[in-house]
């Protein structure tokens, strides 16, 4: 990322849809590696509840080898703390109203806080 882009992301709250997809994983890793001062990352994944969303994020994103450089730079414990502090798992579905977010408090927080929305999800029907 260009230095101006990195600076632009400082203290921003970002929504990433399709967070478990390939492009989103790369984007999330780059943001966390290059701009630790990002305020918050709302990461939308298809899941029925917050616990399932959190499990998907950890197993399909943060435990991947893609995060090795970040893990090496900050350490495992610090990475866990960063994720705990900055990442909000969002269970939902981009094809539904309100992106499938059923928790009205979470939806309200998102609407008030999000500065940038990045849609990397796809919706398809077979």
From TrEMBL:
Instruction: For this UniProt record, give its keywords in alphabetical order, as a comma-separated list.
Output: Lipid biosynthesis, Lipid metabolism, NADP, Oxidoreductase
The enzyme class is: oxidoreductase
Q: Which reaction does it catalyse?
A: a long-chain fatty acyl-CoA + 2 NADPH + 2 H(+) = a long-chain primary fatty alcohol + 2 NADP(+) + CoA
> Record's Pfam families?
NAD_binding_4
- Care to name a GO molecular-function term for this sequence? alcohol-forming long-chain fatty acyl-CoA reductase activity
Domain Thioester reductase (TE) per the UniProt entry, residue ranges: 16-121
Family affiliation: Belongs to the fatty acyl-CoA reductase family.
What protein am I looking at? Answer: Fatty acyl-CoA reductase
